UniProtKB/TrEMBL annotation, chain A:
GO cellular component: cytosol; early endosome membrane; late endosome
GO molecular function: GTP binding; GTPase activity
NCBIfam families: small_GTP
Organism: Naumovozyma dairenensis (strain ATCC 10597 / BCRC 20456 / CBS 421 / NBRC 0211 / NRRL Y-12639)
Primary gene name: NDAI0B04980
Region (Disordered): 202-227
Keyword Nucleotide-binding included in the entry's annotation: yes
Name of the featured protein: Roc domain-containing protein
UniProt GO BP: endocytosis; endosomal vesicle fusion; Golgi to endosome transport; late endosome to vacuole transport via multivesicular body sorting pathway; multivesicular body assembly; protein localization to endosome; protein targeting to vacuole
Automatic annotation (TrEMBL), chain B:
Entry keyword set: Cytoplasm, GTPase activation
Protein name: Rab-GAP TBC domain-containing protein
Keyword Cytoplasm: yes
GO biological process, one term: exocytosis
Subcellular location, record wording: Bud neck; Cytoplasm
PANTHER family given in the database record: RAB GTPASE-ACTIVATING PROTEIN 1-LIKE, TBC1 DOMAIN FAMILY MEMBER 2B
GO MF annotation, one: GTPase activator activity
SUPFAM superfamilies linked: Ypt/Rab-GAP domain of gyp1p
Organism: Naumovozyma dairenensis (strain ATCC 10597 / BCRC 20456 / CBS 421 / NBRC 0211 / NRRL Y-12639) (Saccharomyces dairenensis)
SMART domains referenced in this protein's UniProt entry, alphabetically: TBC (SM00164)
GO cellular component: cellular bud neck; cellular bud tip; cytosol; fungal-type vacuole membrane; incipient cellular bud site; late endosome; mating projection tip; plasma membrane
Gene that encodes the chain: NDAI0A06090
Entry annotated with the keyword Cytoplasm: yes
Pfam (any one): RabGAP-TBC
Length: 227, 642
């Protein structure tokens, strides 16, 4: 089993906790208490190795954080050593996208890990027009609350090299896929490193000398730093 | 059914309009009867509420089945603690048990509960709702009462099932009744009147009163008692009329533009209003279909007023819960002043814009854990002790080894690089345990906080951590079974490849998270407050029970200066990014790692000359006691021999 640390960041009440709960417990509460400090949850998913078709278990250790600006000073403790970050904004709140952008900036400047997977996520798709499953009747009753266009966020994400999706924690639309994609992406990134580690451990068990030899190819390993 | 909803609504609104107090001549300003949700039957801000459509509609409505008597029910009455029942029980109990045993040894609660079992069996607490005067509405309320506690919170949550709750409440409600009786006797003895089951004055501080408070203030009296012990009236008298002035401003602000950019707090408050106790009926929209629940309106006014009153704090998430809980027990104005008092006296700086106060308190808590709960400290901060692998043996070494040899553990860089667990414990302080512990347990801690000042919050935290020891141990055992390698077996640095360092770091992170998870979920299960009080707080053997306010204040000062010093050193060294927490994730480069460690050493060297010393002046008492016990046993033995 592989374990990855994932952190959720974003403005207050964009739905960070709701996304986590949809993913971990597959449930949704219309009114969820505001998160104080941080909450920690874990969830395991399965992905397939594209070459061997082997099932791989991926365990996400998820840090759900409080959204208010002043909690920002605590954020470094959450994203320290994180493998992935879900930067969430609210499709119905213009301001939340700029907050998300400043989180992306902070992650890029402070984490400095090139392998960090950043996923820009627009939440509350259920309140927006382009919901496939919505009947015509409802559409008339409920107004479209979208203020952030798909294109706007998408082009920003492309520009910054982020993954991007619009989801709904309420209906569940797109939530699983986001985590699935992150899992696959991280596995892809970490695979060479894992293989190298396997080799190292194998070498260590047989003899010290072999160990040194096997370690040599590791210079290609992005996380290795012996030079 | 909507009919049910309207009746409940009507009931609640009625309380608000002409609550029992107005009728009883308690003055229009606010009532001193304190039971929960005085908002709904006490202080009426006429100028604000008259325009409230909820009120108008509801009173204009007809077909209500509520009679006069219902109007005098407080919310607590509705949910269980029916006064008549209490009186009945109290009087019969007084006959049965006599009233002389309230003094000194009242630790007999458990025993007396069996004695008086027969009395309580005949008066089931929940039966009060079935009484004839509630025929029409009783059923509706009862339905709610089945699922909600006496404060309106849902009994069930992720950690506690409704049947667990009911089982606990069956016993605990009896305990509450016994305690209330003792309080009544105490007040009577002290010559303090209890008007309308709502005392406004309490006896002067004493060991006895402290014990009473620790055993729980009667729920109906809580608002008044908190107000009294926190010296709220003093504060209010100094600022007479201020709250009303603030309200005028608030009214202008909120009616003008809710998204006013010049008051960013306003927007954040607005977003949190409906996320404050969404499972408490008094905060729920459904009950008040015609508009916002009065409780939400009060909450908005209190929070916005506060942000105007104290711009240094403004609004900080978590204050919504504190204010919300206060509003369940006090009228709006008093709730406001209590919020002022809590954020300044009990939780100084905790809600400030930079949250430094909460970091300081976490530093203090960590110092206390290290000093008083070394066995827990090894879980929380294992990376700096040498023998972290075997916690059992470690515990022994920690307690027996004199302090000098613990020098490696004496380094106090954990004061500025707080252990990850503090991300969890920080919320204990920010929300004053609301949402961390089940509600009754939270309230019991609040009782003590107002009586004993803020050091009680540390005692409570230490108690929770101590109680979680079993779960922590279970977790580590499981862990050692499942993994062949030990998490903190850091071999000699010479043999360490960077890969090993990384691995160790990963294992450490993993461990931190598992510890975090235990500490995060454990308190939610502490349904019975007496688990904390009887098992820990009342036990002399736990040395942290000797902590007092002076010690905590001294500790806070020390941590504050240490953290400031650290900040200055970091500035001096000039590579903030490389030494601070945030970039350690990127320290893949060994050179960098060494640099960081160097910097750490310099800082530690400079700071570790100053080590916080807890007062140990009372340890002698303990020693004396054990000596006394030994002498007694020897005497016994000699006597026996003779």
């Amino acid at each position: 089993m592989l374990q990855f640390k994932l952190v959720l960041l974003g403005d207050s009440s964009v739905g960070k906790s709701s996304i986590v709960h949809r993913f971990v417990k597959d449930s949704f509460d219309e009114l969820r208490e505001s998160t104080i400090g941080a909450a920690f949850l874990a969830q395991t998913i399965k992905i397939k190795d594209t070459e061997t078709q082997e099932d791989i278990d991926i365990k996400f250790e998820i840090w759900d954080t409080a959204g208010q600006e002043r909690y920002k000073s605590l954020a470094p403790m959450y994203y320290r050593n994180a493998n992935a970050a879900l930067v969430v904004y609210d499709l119905t709140q213009k301001n939340s996208l700029s907050k998300a952008m400043s989180w992306v900036d902070e992650l890029k400047s402070k984490v400095g890990d090139e392998d960090l997977v950043i996923y820009l996520v627009g939440n509350k798709l259920d309140l927006c027009d382009n919901v496939e499953n919505r009947g015509g009747k409802e559409q008339e009753e409920e107004e479209n609350k979208r203020v952030v266009t798909t294109q706007e966020a998408d082009s920003y994400a492309k520009d910054q090299g982020l993954l991007f999706a619009e989801i709904s924690a309420k209906t569940g639309q797109g939530v699983k896929e986001v985590f699935q994609t992150i899992g696959e992406k991280l596995y892809e990134i970490k695979k060479p490193e894992l293989l190298a580690k396997k080799n190292r451990e194998y070498g260590r068990n047989s003899s010290e000398a072999v160990d040194i030899n096997i370690q040599r190819p590791n210079t290609n390993d992005p996380t290795s730093c012996c030079s | 059914m909507s009919k049910d909803e309207t009746t409940i609504k009507k009931m609640l609104v009625d309380h608000k309009i002409d609550g029992p107090l107005a009728a009883k001549g308690f003055g229009p300003k606010y009532s001193l009867r304190s039971p929960s949700v005085p908002n709904l039957h006490a202080k009426v801000y006429t100028e604000y509420n008259m325009s409230d459509p909820t009120v108008g509609n509801a009173t204009g409505g007809q077909g209500t089945s509520i009679n006069e008597e219902d109007g005098t029910l407080s919310v607590i009455d509705m949910y269980g603690d029916d006064d008549n029942d209490i009186d009945d029980i109290v009087s019969s109990r007084a006959i049965n048990l006599g009233s002389g045993n309230d003094d000194g040894n009242d630790a007999d609660d458990l025993r007396s509960s069996t004695q008086s079992e027969n009395i309580f069996n005949t008066t089931s607490i929940n039966n009060s709702i079935d009484k004839p005067n509630g025929t029409g509405t009783g059923k509706n309320v009862q339905q709610d009462a089945q699922h909600n506690d006496r404060y309106g919170f849902k009994k069930q949550n992720n950690s506690i099932s409704e049947s667990d709750y009911d089982r606990w409440w069956l016993d605990y409600s009896k305990y509450c009744i016994r305690r209330k009786h003792k309080w009544q006797l105490l007040l009577e003895k002290s010559g303090l009147p209890i008007v309308d089951d709502s005392p406004i004055r309490f006896p002067p501080k004493s060991e006895k009163l402290k014990r009473y408070v620790r055993k729980g203030i009667p729920a109906e009296w809580r608002g008044n008692a908190w107000w009294y012990f926190a010296r709220g009236q003093e504060k209010l008298n100094k600022h007479k009329g201020l709250y009303d002035k603030l309200l005028v401003k608030v009214d202008k602000m909120t009616s003008q533009n809710k998204n006013d950019k010049t008051y960013p707090d306003l927007d954040i408050i607005e977003r949190d209003l409906n996320r404050t106790f969404p499972d408490n009926i008094h905060f729920q929209k459904e009950v008040f279909q015609n508009g916002e629940p009065p409780m939400i309106k009060s909450l908005r006014r209190v929070l916005v007023s506060f942000s105007l009153y104290n711009p240094k704090i403004g609004y900080c998430q978590s204050m919504n819960f504190i204010a919300g809980l206060l509003l369940l027990f006090l009228d709006e104005e008093r709730a406001f002043w209590m919020l002022v008092i809590i954020t300044s006296r009990y939780l100084p700086g905790v809600h400030d814009i930079n949250l430094e106060g909460v970091n300081i308190d976490q530093g203090v808590l960590m110092l206390c854990v290290k000093e008083y709960l070394p066995e827990i400290w090894t879980y929380i901060y294992p990376n700096h002790s040498d023998t972290t692998v075997d916690t059992e043996s470690n515990r022994r070494t920690m307690s027996s080894v004199p302090h000098k040899t613990q020098s490696s553990m004496m380094k106090n860089n954990f004061l500025y690089k707080l252990p990850p667990i503090t991300l969890c414990t920080a919320s204990w302080f920010m929300s004053c345990f609301i949402g961390v512990l089940p509600i009754e347990t939270t309230l019991r801690i609040w009782d003590c906080m107002f009586y004993e000042e803020s050091h009680f919050l540390f005692k409570a935290s230490l108690s929770i951590l101590k109680l979680s020891e079993h779960d922590l141990l279970k977790h580590t055992k499981k862990r050692y079974h499942s993994s062949s390698r030990l998490p903190y077996s850091i071999t000699g640095s010479n043999h360490n490849s960077s890969g090993d360092l990384l691995n160790n770091k990963m294992h450490q992170d993993e461990n931190d998270m598992e510890i975090f998870q235990v500490i995060q979920t454990f308190p939610k299960k502490l349904l019975n407050p007496n688990d904390i009080f009887d098992k820990i707080i009342f036990k002399k053997k736990f040395s942290f029970n000797r902590l007092d306010q002076e010690e905590i204040d001294r500790c806070r000062k020390y941590v504050t200066t240490q953290r400031n010093k650290y900040k200055r050193y970091v500035e001096l060294i000039g590579n903030d990014d490389k030494t601070s927490e945030e970039s350690s994730a990127t320290l893949v480069n060994k050179e960098n790692l060494d640099k960081t460690q160097d910097a750490d050493d310099i800082i530690n060297g400079a700071l570790s000359s100053e080590v916080y010393g807890f007062k140990r002046n009372l340890t002698g008492v303990h020693w004396n006691n054990s000596l006394k016990e030994k002498v007694r046993q020897m005497k016994k033995k000699i006597d026996g021999d003779e």
